[in-house]
Design brief:
The complex is a heterodimer of chains A (155) and B (215). With 155 residues, chain A is mostly helical. Helices cover 67% and strands 1% of the residues of chain A. Chain A is built from 8 helices and 1 strand; from the N terminus they run H-E-H-H-H-H-H-H-H. The longest helix of chain A is centred in the middle third of the chain and has 27 residues. Chain A is rod-shaped and about 150 Å long. Chain B is mostly helical. In chain B, helix 4 crosses helix 5 and helix 7 packs across helix 10. The radius of gyration of chain B is 18 Å and the shape is elongated. The chains are: A mainly alpha (155), B mainly alpha (215).
Chain lengths: 155, 215
């Protein structure tokens, strides 16, 4: 019993001694000038690091749309919505470009023929001929006109 | 005693602790400064350096008992934090995240420099002579009454250096910096029970070392 009490006392004394010694550590003060220099060095290095830092595409995304990465479920949902919208836009554009209605409808053809654009672009303007324009030489006789028979194919 | 699983230096603990808020002094909140720093505002990061420089220096100094190493480490911690800031998601407080970087950096630094470093200690403040603990230690009944203050300081730091890294980390954070067990657990990535256990064994070891010194 006496030994146990002594052990407890020794332990308590050692504990107290340790606490008192540890308490003294609070009075260790760093040199103010060194601390100021240290902070200045940190700030200088940070500026250098900032100047040299090339932001990757991933970093830019994280900075500008942090919610996308902070809550991945919303990010995935946003990607899905964007996919659906693009898909819909693609289908709409495809159907409009494939339509042949403008060429097959009678109304459209008539409108196209009447429009000045169609005349200007699709018709070739020939010079108008006089009514008494002579197509053949006046001395030419009908006997001059020869009919050439089709030659039989060689065997 | 349960072993902890060490994580990457800039990995964030899962939860934020309320106790952190109490330690923030006046000025813009950390979240605001962190956001500005993430957007490349170095002046905002300067404010964070001003705010936490003393605490990080205190941690690294007490872990190394060498002020030159502590200064280098403090510098490395803040630069590393700035570089890793784009990956900081705010799941934990900035303070806890910064402490985690500091602890891991210090442990890695000491592992790299395997040889034992000489002590290089800060001066005691003159106010120590008015302290009650100091008076008790130097009183007639104290076993340390014949030992000078500088000898006491050297012995205490030597004893600290005999501890393993993980034991010294909890002693420094709890007994010297007054950080609660729960927050230490978040920083070192262990359970609160493990932190308490480490603290207990670390104190026992220190007591044993000091009792040899007293004899």
């Amino acid at each position: 019993m006496k030994n146990e009490t002594e052990e407890v006392m020794i332990e308590t004394e050692a504990d107290l001694l340790l606490k008192q010694l540890m308490h003294l550590k609070h009075y260790e003060r760093p040199d103010e000038a060194r601390m100021t220099r240290n902070k200045q060095n940190i700030m200088r290095q940070v500026r250098e690091a900032n100047a040299n830092k090339r932001k990757s595409f991933g970093d830019l995304l994280e900075i500008n749309i942090p919610w996308f990465f902070a809550e991945p479920k919303y990010g995935i949902a946003a990607v899905f919505v964007a996919f659906v919208v693009l898909q819909y836009a693609g289908i709409t554009a495809q159907s409009s470009s494939e339509s042949t209605g403008i060429y097959t409808s009678n109304n459209n053809i008539a409108a196209l023929e009447q429009s000045s654009i169609g005349a200007a672009t699709n018709s070739i303007s020939y010079p108008s001929l006089p009514n008494n324009y002579q197509l053949f030489d006046t001395n030419q006789k009908s006997s001059d006109v020869m009919f050439v028979e089709r030659l039989a194919p060689k065997k | 005693m349960a072993e902890d699983v060490r994580t990457e230096p800039d990995q964030e603990p899962e939860e934020e602790l309320e106790t952190v808020e109490e330690q923030v002094d006046e000025g813009p909140p950390d979240d605001e400064l962190v956001l500005k720093s993430q957007q490349g505002d170095v002046h905002a990061f300067d404010l964070l350096v001003e705010r936490y420089h003393g605490k990080i220096y205190g941690l690294t100094y007490n872990m190394c008992s060498n002020r030159e190493d502590a200064e280098d480490l403090t510098q490395e911690v803040f630069v590393k934090a700035f570089e890793a800031l784009p990956r900081f998601k705010g799941k934990s407080s900035f303070y806890t995240w910064l402490y985690r970087i500091a602890v891991n950096k210090t442990i890695n630094y000491r592992k790299k420099r395997n040889r034992k470093r000489a002590l290089s200690l800060d001066q005691f403040d003159q106010e120590i002579k008015t302290d009650e603990s100091y008076s008790d230690l130097t009183s007639k009944g104290s076993p340390l009454r014949n030992i000078s203050l500088s000898e006491l300081q050297i012995k205490l730091n030597e004893v600290l250096q005999t501890l393993s890294e993980k034991h010294r980390t909890v002693v420094v954070m709890h007994d010297m910096q007054g950080i609660p067990h729960e927050e230490i657990a978040k920083v070192v990535g262990a359970s609160v029970g493990t932190v308490r256990s480490r603290l207990f064994y670390a104190r026992r070891q220190m007591q044993a070392e000091l009792s040899e010194f007293v004899k």
